């Protein structure tokens, strides 16, 4: 399924309310799955001050997600993703290889949607 609209294969990803190392694991997973504007070694840093820290990346999902191994998080991570319906679905499917993904909210428009995802470590076999 080819997407021809400008930007239709890009998804904006915001990661908030988590430890920097968990944000890094999410961005590292996205880089393993797709192409991102965030370098693999670009480790998120905690910000000084009382405000909420938001880390951002733009992910190109025109290619099917690569195979990636599950990654462990120290706590659940909230990721807000925004893009075309097809692109957001492809990103969500890729993340589902690596984490347990739950939709916790969304807002829809004609061409794009914004979805809030809760990412958790995948359960391990006993």
Model description:
With 126 residues, the protein is α+β, with helices and mostly antiparallel strands. It is 22% helix and 35% strand. It is built from two helices and six strands, in the order E-H-E-E-E-H-E-E. Strands 2-3-1-4-6-5 form a six-stranded antiparallel β-sheet, covered by helices on one side. Strand 5 (99-108) and strand 6 form a beta hairpin. The radius of gyration is 14 Å and the shape is globular. The model has no long low-confidence stretch (mean pLDDT 88).
Question: In terms of topology, how is this protein built?
Answer:
Layout: E1 10-16, H1 20-33, E2 35-36, E3 54-60, E4 77-84, H2 85-98, E5 99-108, E6 112-121
Antiparallel strand pairs: 1-3, 1-4, 2-3, 4-6, 5-6
Short description:
With 126 residues, the chain is an alpha+beta fold. The chain has helices at 20-33, 85-98, and strands at 10-16, 35-36, 54-60, 77-84, 99-108, 112-121.
């Amino acid at each position: 399924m080819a997407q021809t609209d400008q930007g239709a294969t890009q998804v904006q990803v915001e990661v908030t309310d988590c430890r920097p190392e968990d944000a890094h694991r999410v961005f590292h997973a996205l880089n393993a799955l797709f192409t991102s504007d965030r370098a693999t070694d670009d480790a998120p840093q905690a910000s000084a001050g009382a405000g909420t820290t938001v880390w951002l990346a733009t992910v190109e999902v025109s290619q099917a997600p690569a195979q990636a191994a599950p990654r462990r998080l120290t706590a659940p991570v909230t990721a807000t993703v925004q893009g075309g319906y097809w692109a957001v679905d492809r990103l969500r499917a890729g993340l589902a290889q690596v984490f347990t993904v739950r939709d916790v909210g969304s807002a829809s428009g004609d061409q794009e949607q914004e979805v809030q995802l809760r990412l958790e470590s995948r359960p391990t076999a006993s």
